[in-house]
Write a structure and sequence with these properties.
4-stranded antiparallel sheet; alpha/beta; 509 residues; 8-stranded mixed sheet
Length: 509
């Protein structure tokens, strides 16, 4: 008797058939709530792709995130919906784009908009379907959600995010833009245990251990939000020792990189506390900032590790889905700036990792993904019905088959009319005044060369830009009432940054 055709081929056919048969089924279909998976959601503030699973910096050491990636799937082409804390987190937690909510700045809180006062956020959706919900650290921006009506947002509120220990005075010279107290970095004599993120991790560990000793019949949705590497970038000396100054690798920077970007590219970060690269160089702070950021990334990774260790030691290790994300990226001197508030990869590309039951380990997916997709993805993985009005797409298909093509690109928005659109090869940027950028990420991963600059773009590039532009939101809600802080608005007489008319002649590079 002839043997079955090659065993690898046979297994491939069987797996493919299984994917077809089960493609429409959740990983935990129609189970009683006691059998549904728990959810552990870990959020990290201002973390760009400088993590081991994404390889954004050759020296970065993030063993906990790497361990999580080896247990699950990393979306290597994931992007935020806004390069700023409040609109990004609002989008993720509501499942709606900034262009749908009108939340573009650090204010307002989404509940202050009457039409969204009763919208069901991600934890509420899980609560509505039998989950016990807990939030500790920074999940919503600042203190949002913790005021009036806090009991309706989740079942248990833990510690809020905080810096923790601070030096007696700032470690760096006075910075432009008002010498903001958050603009500081470096090391001083303190303990890891004195940091806000250590305390948040300890709270999360306590919750896991407490639930393990007195398990409830209902599953849990535990959200844990870390502050670092948000400024001030303070870490203890041992984390700095991991990145010696004499061997520190600096991010790629091109002199005069902004010469081929339109004037409007400056409007979206017109006047900020985060200093320009020129100031960092003049004050010998560029290398210290990079070193401090890396040190803080490794420290916060260690806190992620503490939470993951507690989960792995608990009875919930095998029935908990873990998702880790950052709200947006961060510039460390690239494109002439530090901070976020741009529509380039350094500001929009973020870590996004899923792991847990039903998810194979060591997977990587290069299809475009959005933070907007987390809400529908978790709902589907847990076997819950989808909430109405979600604008994201479930990533379940890519989780089960990482090469499955996703037609829709990732879209990021920073104030009305300013967007980036990113697929597997291209990034297209358009500003509110109509000016454009286009980058070929296969040949120019650092986005140094704007293919729409100078003379008219080639027909190929024009066609590519038009194809990507077709995905832009057709309707854009105006600024929500109470919008403030990092808000750009076009009026009849020009563009206004935080209520002040922009004078292009006053540009500081």
């Amino acid at each position: 008797m002839q043997p079955i055709a090659s065993r690898p081929l046979f297994l491939t056919i069987i797996r493919s058939a299984a994917l077809i048969v089960f493609a429409g089924m959740p990983i935990f279909p129609a189970m009683g709530q006691a059998n549904r998976p728990n959810i552990l959601m870990i959020a990290i503030d201002d973390l760009n792709d400088w993590v081991e699973p994404l390889g954004g910096h050759p020296q970065v050491q993030t063993p906990a995130m790497q361990r999580l990636a080896q247990r699950g799937i990393t979306f290597t082409n994931a992007h935020c919906q806004a390069p700023l804390c409040n609109p990004s987190r609002t989008s993720l937690m509501t499942g709606r784009r900034p262009t749908s909510t009108g939340v573009y700045g650090l204010s307002p809180w989404i509940r202050d908009s009457p039409e969204f006062a009763d919208i069901r956020m991600l934890p509420q959706h899980f609560h509505d379907h039998g989950y016990r919900t807990l939030i500790g650290g920074k999940i919503y921006h600042g203190g949002y959600g913790r005021g009036k009506g806090a009991q309706n947002e989740c079942d248990v509120w833990g510690l809020n995010a905080s810096v923790g220990a601070k030096p007696p005075s700032k470690l760096i010279p006075p910075t432009p833009g008002g010498n903001h107290p958050l603009m500081d970095w470096g090391t001083f004599d303190h303990r890891d245990e004195d940091k806000g993120d250590w305390k948040v991790a300890s709270w999360a560990v306590d919750q896991i251990e407490t639930m393990a000793t007195a398990p409830a019949e209902q599953p849990f949705f535990l959200s844990v939000g870390f502050f670092l590497p948000h400024v001030p970038c303070f870490a203890t000396q041992k984390w700095f020792d991991m990145y010696p100054d004499e061997s520190l690798v600096m991010p790629p920077m091109l002199a005069d990189d902004r010469d081929d970007t339109p004037l409007a590219s400056w409007f979206v970060h017109w006047e900020l506390p985060e200093p320009r690269t020129s100031w960092l160089k003049e004050n010998n702070q560029l290398r210290p900032l990079v070193r401090s950021y890396l040190a803080c990334v490794s420290f916060v990774d260690s806190q992620v590790g503490r939470v993951l260790d507690a989960l792995e030691k608990s009875p919930y290790a095998d029935n908990t889905i873990v998702v880790l994300w950052s709200d947006h990226g961060y510039h460390l001197g690239e494109k002439g700036i530090s901070g976020k508030n741009s529509l380039w990869a350094r500001s929009t590309r973020v870590p996004l990792i899923f792991a847990g039951p039903g998810i194979d380990g060591g997977l990587r997916c290069s299809q475009p993904a959005e933070l907007l997709d987390i809400y529908p993805t978790l709902s589907e993985l847990a076997g819950l019905p989808q909430a109405p009005g979600l604008e994201g797409l479930s990533l379940r298909r890519q989780i089960q088959s990482p090469t499955a093509v996703r037609q829709r690109p990732a879209i990021c928005t920073h104030n009305v009319g300013n967007h980036s659109v990113c697929d597997n090869r291209w990034r297209y940027v358009v500003y509110a005044d109509g000016s454009e950028e286009l980058y070929d990420l296969t040949s120019d991963p650092d986005e140094f060369h704007n293919l729409m600059a100078g003379d008219a773009a080639s027909e190929q590039h024009r066609n590519t830009a038009d194809r990507l532009a077709a995905w832009l939101p057709k309707d854009q809600r105006a600024l929500a009432r109470g919008s403030a802080h990092r808000v750009l608005e076009e009026r009849e007489d020009g563009f206004y940054w935080e209520e002040n008319l922009i004078d292009p002649n006053a540009l500081i590079r």
